[in-house]
Amino acid sequence: MAKRNSRNTRGRIVSAAWQLFYEQGYEHTTVEEIIEASQTSKGSFYHYFDGKDALLSTLSDLFDEKYEALMETMDPAMPALDQLLFLNSELFRTIENSVSLELLARLLSTQLVTSGDKHLLDYRRTYYRLLRKIISRGREEGQLTDRLSVSEMVKLYALCERALMYDWCLCGGEYSLRDYSAKVLPGFLSSFLP
Fold this sequence. Notes:
By secondary structure, the protein is mainly alpha-helical. The protein has two domains: 1-49, Arc Repressor Mutant, subunit A (Orthogonal Bundle), CATH 1.10.10; 52-192, Tetracycline Repressor, domain 2. The chain has helices spanning 2-24, 31-38, 42-48, 59-73, 80-98, 101-113, 126-140, 150-170, 177-189. The chain starts with a helix and ends in a 5-residue tail after the last helix.
Protein backbone atom coordinates (compact mmCIF):
# COMPACT_ATOMS: atom_id res chain seq x y z
CA MET A 1 0.00 0.00 0.00
CA ALA A 2 2.90 2.37 0.77
CA LYS A 3 4.22 1.92 -2.79
CA ARG A 4 0.82 2.84 -4.28
CA ASN A 5 0.56 5.94 -2.05
CA SER A 6 4.03 7.07 -3.05
CA ARG A 7 3.18 6.56 -6.74
CA ASN A 8 -0.04 8.55 -6.23
CA THR A 9 1.84 11.38 -4.50
CA ARG A 10 4.46 11.52 -7.23
CA GLY A 11 1.73 11.33 -9.88
CA ARG A 12 -0.21 14.21 -8.28
CA ILE A 13 2.94 16.33 -8.28
CA VAL A 14 3.68 15.52 -11.92
CA SER A 15 0.09 16.15 -13.06
CA ALA A 16 -0.16 19.44 -11.16
CA ALA A 17 3.21 20.61 -12.48
CA TRP A 18 2.39 19.95 -16.12
CA GLN A 19 -1.02 21.55 -15.81
CA LEU A 20 0.60 24.67 -14.35
CA PHE A 21 3.39 24.62 -16.95
CA TYR A 22 0.77 24.56 -19.67
CA GLU A 23 -1.40 27.29 -18.12
CA GLN A 24 1.31 29.65 -16.85
CA GLY A 25 4.44 28.62 -18.71
CA TYR A 26 7.42 26.82 -17.26
CA GLU A 27 9.30 29.97 -16.24
CA HIS A 28 6.30 31.46 -14.42
CA THR A 29 5.51 28.35 -12.37
CA THR A 30 7.06 28.00 -8.92
CA VAL A 31 7.70 24.92 -6.83
CA GLU A 32 5.37 26.39 -4.19
CA GLU A 33 2.52 26.57 -6.73
CA ILE A 34 3.14 22.97 -7.74
CA ILE A 35 3.06 21.86 -4.10
CA GLU A 36 -0.19 23.76 -3.52
CA ALA A 37 -1.88 22.49 -6.69
CA SER A 38 -0.84 18.88 -5.98
CA GLN A 39 -1.99 19.15 -2.35
CA THR A 40 1.30 17.70 -1.15
CA SER A 41 4.06 18.99 1.07
CA LYS A 42 7.45 20.52 0.44
CA GLY A 43 9.00 17.38 1.91
CA SER A 44 7.06 15.18 -0.51
CA PHE A 45 8.04 17.32 -3.46
CA TYR A 46 11.74 17.21 -2.63
CA HIS A 47 11.55 13.51 -1.82
CA TYR A 48 10.77 12.86 -5.50
CA PHE A 49 12.38 15.80 -7.28
CA ASP A 50 15.53 17.90 -6.81
CA GLY A 51 13.70 20.94 -8.15
CA LYS A 52 11.49 22.16 -10.94
CA ASP A 53 13.96 21.20 -13.69
CA ALA A 54 13.75 17.56 -12.62
CA LEU A 55 10.10 17.59 -13.66
CA LEU A 56 10.98 18.08 -17.32
CA SER A 57 11.85 14.39 -17.68
CA THR A 58 8.42 13.39 -16.38
CA LEU A 59 6.67 14.34 -19.60
CA SER A 60 7.36 10.78 -20.74
CA ASP A 61 5.34 9.62 -17.68
CA LEU A 62 2.36 11.66 -18.88
CA PHE A 63 2.71 10.21 -22.37
CA ASP A 64 2.71 6.71 -20.87
CA GLU A 65 -0.43 7.48 -18.86
CA LYS A 66 -2.07 8.60 -22.09
CA TYR A 67 -1.08 5.35 -23.80
CA GLU A 68 -2.50 3.29 -20.94
CA ALA A 69 -5.81 5.14 -21.20
CA LEU A 70 -5.87 4.74 -24.99
CA MET A 71 -5.28 0.99 -24.72
CA GLU A 72 -8.53 0.70 -22.79
CA THR A 73 -10.49 2.43 -25.55
CA MET A 74 -8.79 0.87 -28.58
CA ASP A 75 -10.48 -2.03 -30.36
CA PRO A 76 -8.11 -5.03 -29.94
CA ALA A 77 -9.34 -6.41 -33.30
CA MET A 78 -8.05 -3.31 -35.11
CA PRO A 79 -5.15 -4.17 -37.45
CA ALA A 80 -1.70 -3.48 -35.98
CA LEU A 81 -0.89 -0.67 -38.41
CA ASP A 82 -4.18 1.06 -37.62
CA GLN A 83 -3.47 0.74 -33.90
CA LEU A 84 -0.09 2.43 -34.34
CA LEU A 85 -1.64 5.25 -36.37
CA PHE A 86 -4.43 5.67 -33.80
CA LEU A 87 -1.97 5.87 -30.89
CA ASN A 88 0.16 8.40 -32.74
CA SER A 89 -2.82 10.56 -33.66
CA GLU A 90 -4.14 10.61 -30.10
CA LEU A 91 -0.73 11.29 -28.54
CA PHE A 92 -0.09 14.15 -30.94
CA ARG A 93 -3.58 15.52 -30.25
CA THR A 94 -2.68 15.52 -26.54
CA ILE A 95 0.61 17.27 -27.21
CA GLU A 96 -1.08 19.99 -29.28
CA ASN A 97 -3.81 20.52 -26.69
CA SER A 98 -1.96 20.23 -23.40
CA VAL A 99 1.83 20.49 -23.83
CA SER A 100 3.26 23.80 -24.88
CA LEU A 101 5.79 23.91 -27.68
CA GLU A 102 8.29 25.40 -25.22
CA LEU A 103 7.95 22.46 -22.84
CA LEU A 104 8.24 19.83 -25.54
CA ALA A 105 11.34 21.58 -26.89
CA ARG A 106 12.82 21.68 -23.38
CA LEU A 107 12.16 17.96 -22.93
CA LEU A 108 13.76 17.08 -26.25
CA SER A 109 16.76 19.32 -25.56
CA THR A 110 17.33 17.85 -22.09
CA GLN A 111 17.42 14.39 -23.65
CA LEU A 112 20.18 15.56 -26.01
CA VAL A 113 22.48 16.91 -23.32
CA THR A 114 21.82 14.67 -20.33
CA SER A 115 24.43 12.20 -19.25
CA GLY A 116 21.93 10.44 -17.01
CA ASP A 117 18.70 8.67 -17.84
CA LYS A 118 17.31 9.26 -21.29
CA HIS A 119 13.66 8.82 -20.39
CA LEU A 120 12.47 8.87 -23.97
CA LEU A 121 14.70 5.87 -24.69
CA ASP A 122 13.79 3.83 -21.61
CA TYR A 123 12.57 0.55 -23.10
CA ARG A 124 10.84 -0.32 -19.81
CA ARG A 125 8.32 2.47 -20.41
CA THR A 126 4.68 1.63 -21.11
CA TYR A 127 5.18 3.17 -24.55
CA TYR A 128 7.75 0.59 -25.63
CA ARG A 129 5.94 -2.34 -24.02
CA LEU A 130 2.78 -1.36 -25.87
CA LEU A 131 4.57 -0.96 -29.20
CA ARG A 132 6.21 -4.38 -28.78
CA LYS A 133 2.83 -5.95 -28.01
CA ILE A 134 1.10 -4.41 -31.04
CA ILE A 135 3.95 -5.14 -33.44
CA SER A 136 4.46 -8.70 -32.14
CA ARG A 137 0.79 -9.47 -32.60
CA GLY A 138 0.86 -7.90 -36.06
CA ARG A 139 3.77 -10.12 -37.07
CA GLU A 140 2.17 -13.25 -35.63
CA GLU A 141 -1.02 -12.56 -37.59
CA GLY A 142 0.88 -11.86 -40.82
CA GLN A 143 -0.11 -8.17 -40.88
CA LEU A 144 3.48 -6.95 -40.53
CA THR A 145 6.70 -7.97 -42.25
CA ASP A 146 9.10 -10.59 -40.99
CA ARG A 147 11.98 -8.86 -42.83
CA LEU A 148 12.44 -6.64 -39.76
CA SER A 149 12.58 -7.82 -36.17
CA VAL A 150 10.02 -6.59 -33.65
CA SER A 151 12.79 -4.61 -31.94
CA GLU A 152 13.79 -2.95 -35.22
CA MET A 153 10.20 -1.94 -35.97
CA VAL A 154 9.68 -0.57 -32.44
CA LYS A 155 12.88 1.45 -32.72
CA LEU A 156 11.95 2.80 -36.18
CA TYR A 157 8.44 3.77 -35.08
CA ALA A 158 9.73 5.58 -31.99
CA LEU A 159 12.42 7.27 -34.07
CA CYS A 160 9.82 8.55 -36.53
CA GLU A 161 7.62 9.93 -33.73
CA ARG A 162 10.57 11.71 -32.12
CA ALA A 163 11.61 13.12 -35.50
CA LEU A 164 8.11 14.49 -36.09
CA MET A 165 8.06 16.13 -32.65
CA TYR A 166 11.56 17.53 -33.10
CA ASP A 167 10.71 19.00 -36.51
CA TRP A 168 7.50 20.50 -35.13
CA CYS A 169 9.51 22.22 -32.41
CA LEU A 170 12.16 23.41 -34.89
CA CYS A 171 9.42 24.92 -37.06
CA GLY A 172 7.91 26.72 -34.07
CA GLY A 173 4.66 24.76 -34.27
CA GLU A 174 3.73 26.49 -37.54
CA TYR A 175 1.67 23.48 -38.64
CA SER A 176 -0.52 20.90 -36.95
CA LEU A 177 1.66 18.11 -35.59
CA ARG A 178 -1.25 15.69 -35.70
CA ASP A 179 -2.30 16.53 -39.26
CA TYR A 180 1.25 16.43 -40.60
CA SER A 181 1.87 13.08 -38.93
CA ALA A 182 -1.36 11.72 -40.45
CA LYS A 183 0.10 12.54 -43.89
CA VAL A 184 3.66 11.31 -43.30
CA LEU A 185 3.45 8.36 -40.91
CA PRO A 186 1.37 5.98 -43.10
CA GLY A 187 4.01 6.20 -45.85
CA PHE A 188 6.78 5.53 -43.37
CA LEU A 189 4.92 2.61 -41.80
CA SER A 190 4.28 1.04 -45.23
CA SER A 191 7.80 -0.42 -44.85
CA PHE A 192 6.33 -2.54 -42.03
CA LEU A 193 3.90 -4.28 -44.39
CA PRO A 194 4.62 -7.80 -45.66
